[in-house]
């Protein structure tokens, strides 16, 4: 299935039916009064979040969605039938924005959440509605009102507990494949991951969480460089961030440089991202071989204000302690009504 996380569509509610101009015509009633019925209301357009959808693919090739119009009123005080509503299912986590202003109109972040994108027009009144003691035979009726129409932008933000961030080839795809049933594409060249990947991690019998892997970040990602900017919104909903750094690429003279660059990109995109608890994971420790080198590099990261773990997704070393730590952070997060404050020495906040 092709992953589509953005779509621009136009929604048009139904027009109300016209009111009817009619007079009662019966035998022995030569001057029957007005009996024109009202027109039916036009149908609304609704967006509804559902777990049955995982992508906005349905909106890629069809851009205009119209609800049905109301039917016209008839004689003998017969009112027109209302137009049926149009309900558009969207994935849970879809954000709706106004195309012109960029204003967030709705955040459909729970299954079953509905939002009315366009209201149907009111049906016109028949001439029977305008009869008065001084105007007993009105010869006019109303037309139905036009339904609302608008252009909206749909953006999907994945719902995950843990978000993996890092440079290309940091080992994010290998890690998510090692700890979950997800099977992303894995190769030794940059930007292997072109779409976000979700995986369910089972820590023990009572604890599991969802982890998300997004395409690798590069310097300038917050300004549109590389692929990361397009997918950074997918980690906005996560509760914990994991900074994955290839330990074999850590410079000896400036070991914290990779972490500083990652946090700078996150902070530049949205300072709120650095209000989340973070874990620094030094990956691919199997490439060094020398355990003393691993310990030396790990020590350099001890003062960054976040837990630091060294792991190998290939051999499995360090993975279980990492998963238990993440489960504990998530459990702590669920007990807090407010997000974790950023550490005082946050690297990203000073970049």
TrEMBL record:
Documented EC number(s): 3.6.5.-
Binding site for GTP: 166-173, 191-195, 213-216, 283-286, 312-314
Any one of the GO CC terms: cytoplasm
A molecular-function term among this protein's GO annotations: GTPase activity
Pfam hit, one: GTP1_OBG
Obg domain boundaries: 1-159
InterPro entries in the cross-refs: G_OBG (IPR031167), GTP-bd (IPR006073), GTP-bd_Obg/CgtA (IPR014100), GTP1-OBG_CS (IPR006074), GTP1_OBG_dom (IPR006169), GTP1_OBG_dom_sf (IPR036726), OBG_GTPase (IPR045086), P-loop_NTPase (IPR027417)
Quaternary structure, from the entry: Monomer.
NCBIfam families attached to this UniProt entry: Obg_CgtA (TIGR02729), PRK12296.1 (NF008954), PRK12297.1 (NF008955), PRK12299.1 (NF008956)
Protein family according to the UniProt entry: Belongs to the TRAFAC class OBG-HflX-like GTPase superfamily. OBG GTPase family.
Protein name: GTPase Obg
Organism: Desulfoglaeba alkanexedens ALDC
Lineage of the species this protein comes from: Bacteria, Pseudomonadati, Thermodesulfobacteriota, Syntrophobacteria, Syntrophobacterales
